[in-house]
Amino acid sequence: xxxxxxxxxxxxxxxxxxxxxxxxxxxxxxxxxxxxxxxxxxxxxxxxxxxxxxxxxxxxxxxxxxxxxxxxxxxxxxxxxxxxxxxxxxxxxxxxxxxxxxxxxxxxxxxxxxxxxxxxxxxxxxxxxxxxxxxxxxxxxxxxxxxxxxxxxxxxxxxxxxxxxxxxxxxxxxxxxxxxxxxxxxxxxxxxxxxxxxxxxxxxxxxxxxxxxxxxxxxxxxxxxxxxxxxxxxxxxxxxxxxxxxxxxxxxxxxxxxxxxxxxxxxxxxxxxxxxx
Length: 277
Prior knowledge:
Strand order of the largest sheet: 1-3-8-5-6
CATH class of the largest domain: Mainly Beta
Largest sheet: 5 strands, mixed
Distance between the termini: 14 Å
CATH superfamily of the largest domain: Jelly Rolls
Shape: globular
Number of domains: 2
Order of helices and strands: EEEEEEEEEHHHHHHHHH
Helix content: 40-55%
Strand content: 15-25%
Number of strands: 9
Radius of gyration: 20 Å
């Protein structure tokens, strides 16, 4: 049982390369990643099995030979109920700086079937060569990567983007600064009012911003961050549950247990027992 929660995700590229390429962490199944977003463009390519993707409340089931493009600041969630083989490519948004609109914006979508097949093949080849481990292979991987970038810019780039998408992207960019602060101070006493004051918004405006553009409310977002860290401690340490609760921003162990059960359908003590702690 892999418990991840929604948050703004910071993407770091692989050493010596302008992208991050890796096997999907939910490949063993039983995986849920709730709503989150990041500045990078992300591509999930499913080799075997299936994933249930949601982009801005719209569902995209993926199966063998299919991929999805997640644009910068696009809220998405992932469910992988069964084992799968999936490769993920993350590309920093700044890679496309020369192609930004005046709003510092760029958006991609799928092309025709032949082009989609080529993109899927490129991702497969990149991953197989990259994981071979030889230093010289980086050059070959880079050549495939730049072909992929060319396709994205010339075949997949969309110029007529819905105004709501553009507005949501701008608001999520603002929210990223707030959520980054929340991630750094989650164990402290954080309220909607204190965050609004910190970033010069009214509490009602900040509340609406979260709900409308991130699709979640402020309280649930903060709770998700705290639960994510608490889950990691349950898995990796033998600390007392009350200490884990207090150390991650919960007022007491009862509040922690109730929030954990409401979210995951199991008590922290049961989760720890199931994971051999």
